[in-house]
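Work Package 3 (structural annotation) set out to generate three-dimensional models for the target panel prioritized at the project kickoff. During this period the team completed the workflow that converts sequence records into discrete structure tokens, so that structures can be stored uniformly alongside our sequence database. As a representative example, we reproduce one entry of 227 residues exactly as it appears in the project archive.
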Amino acid sequence: MANDTLKKNVSRILRTPGMEKIGFQLGSLTVTGQKLSQVAQAIDDGKIQCLTVKELELKQGPITLPKGMTIEAQYKEEFNAMLFRDESYGTAPGEDRTIVHEAVHASFDLLTPKKGFQTLAMDDESAAVLTEALYIKVCGLPVGGFKMMAPQAEAWNLAGLMSIETDDFTKGGIYNLDPSQTADLRAEVAKAWGFVQVPDKTGYTDNSTAIYVYNGMVKCNKRGICK
């Protein structure tokens, strides 16, 4: 069963007035305010759960993470669940942006064209970070410390360009991003998320081609156990 406090808060944030202006294509990925609204509706309908990390662990068992790592917010495709540190998540400054970021991943899963749909992880995360920047702009929200990190700073610059070229997002339709426009954003995302070549005993491991896999909505029983 979903956490009602989280469910209401996340659904509300994804319906913030202005989000309907979001619409872009980055590589093979399309993000729109309408699709994020569909995520909100899927949360309302129980297709996507909103849970604290502890709540999921009580149902599915411990989540294994690298030493020293914790989950603040994450979309877990295998459970069709948005996980959060605690049930008050989304009330502190900046946490709403993280919810929007994770909702982008959820939208790719919810609306996947087929089971086993693959996305280039670098593009996937770039689209999510750019959506954060656009969320701030189109909803007229405080920037806060958003631009302090390199990927977010590049996303903010790109969102500014998109604003200029669309007359402050008054021109409808999908903004098709040229690879040259997203090169700096993708490069910073690659460094921040580790989608780079990593030296190892055999030479190096190339993580730049890492993929995310989406299988669509799985079925969950009344106890919230998903298979």
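Helices lie at 4-13, 33-45, 53-60, 95-110, 121-139, 150-165, 179-193.
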